[in-house]
Amino acid sequence: MNRHASAPAIVLSAVLASGCAVAPPAPPAPAADTTAGAAPPELIALSHFFASREANWGYRVSPDGTRLGWITSHGGRSTIHVRTLGRNDTRPIDTHSRRAIYWFTWARDSRHALYLQDENGDENHHVYLASIERPDDPPVDLTPFPGSRAWIDRVIRSDPDHIVIAWNKRDRAVFDLYRVNLATREHALIAENPGDVTEWLTDSEGRVRGRIRHVGPDVRHLEVLRDSGWAVLQPLDLEEFNLQMLGVTPDDRGLWLLSSRGRDRLSLVRVDLASGAESLVHDDPELDLEWVGMSERTREPLAVVTDPGRQAIRFFDAALEADLAVLRRHSPTGLRILSFDDGERLVTVEVFTEKGYENYLVDRRTGETHLLGRSQMVQFAHALGTTEPITLSARDGVRLRGYLTRPPGFGAPGPMVLVVHGGHWARDYWRYAPVVQFLANRGYAVLQVNYRGSTGYGRAFRELAVGEYAGKMHDDLIDSVRWAVAGGVADPARVAIYGGSYGGYAALVGMTFTPDVFACGVDIVGISNLVSFYETVPPYWKVSVMPLFHKYVGDPSRPEDRRRLEAKSPLFKADQVKRPLLIIHGARDIRVNVRESEQMIAALNRAGKDVRSVVFPDEGHRREYGNWRNALRHYSEVENFLARCLGGRKSGP
To answer: In terms of domains, do 302 and 173 share one?
Structure first.
């Protein structure tokens, strides 16, 4: 878990009301695939999924509305491209780096781009400034201190010469705020972290307005800056870690928050800056709000998003809803707003399904819509799987929701891969997922379940995971496999478990604690020993992340917890493994140290087990690899391993 992996790249994630659907009640069995027994679909090359020169995404219009920027391939990696609207003058930004870029934003002057990049997968991202008008000039590292980590807190609306960044230059364990001059590269400290601040809030002018402090083992404070100094606005408990400070209200007298304080679910609220009085703006009767889109121009909320199965949206801005109606589809379709110009007259939008996406520019003045680019996967839609929302009941009656993807022509019951999401404070969504579609194209049904502890379903559901690593959280995974077997989807002798981070830990638990359930397992950057994992986490996790691990998993400094942690660690059950394991790790991983895989591999080898391992020396803890060579090696290993284990297809010998 890391809430600061990068600056927010999305203004809003949503789906038009015509495309939303609620997950159906748990059926006795999934619906039959009418194409079962047909010829298998076209075998799609690995490069199309994970290293495509045709991939393009992240379209953002410049603040002044004259330019467009996006990410696509150049020189064998993903990087920024720009062009002038109305012209065919596309040119890449040469980052002078071998590693890919996956996100950028515009500087307010519309003549520069800002992006984050690390050099070796260690997540020590620096903030870079690149010239649009001189694209061949080397980008400038605005945070040139080795071993430090930074991200963009605010591109100041009224001041094109400065941005605000969060940076742990002074103390690697905490992040201060700095105002950076884009012309001189000078940075001035504007908010020093006293050692316990986990979040900062700046307003549209770049002024520091709020912060969240972790003041005790289970206590946090939402504080605001007044003339007399910092004052507590609201007390928070540990479980309200997901509070998001969205901005200051237009009258400058309140804060917009996405908050679960005093309630089960994340809801949109307004809090008075003087009294702390809170008023509810919008909530959902069953689900957390996944995202709130805010207008930088009016400082008002535009829409809220939930994900009951497929995405659903409620607009607050009727004009925006009407302007985006042109993108409606008859079939379920998601919509993600990527950017506005300063006047919010132009908007870039991604329209997606589980099989790919298209990007559009909508001119709200004229109603014109321009197709900017299509996913490289659109051409293969006929060969991709269909993803359906599902529900099922765990053995103790808890309702679980997730997704089932089956390829065209899938012969049920057939081989299946259980893909376990990381986090564990995360969830799976209905959208295009390269790993899921890659596995489906190789001939496997793919099952994803939002096990207890996943986000999106409220606090009570999340807290069902307390103390349940290798316990009821794992039971949920086993119960989902049983559901698929009972429904005639999965052949019980051909089920694999696959996951990264927590999902990698779950894969190891599956192969050690329940060795008869899975035919094989794939562990990517997973934890093997919960005690040794704690010893190598990043210093900035001490305040923001580790209190949650202590609550949900345990604190190894307490002898009784240490014993429980070891009992839940796959490392000490390596001799129980019965089936093949593939273990993949990045040597530069700063979240889950590569030692977690190394010690598991050694234990499996000592026990004479079937294990194959791959360690990438220049990668870390991430889904998107820094270079395509590593991505292709990774998924080639996966497809060959699963073909041997489950009998699916592969593209190589």
So the answer is: yes
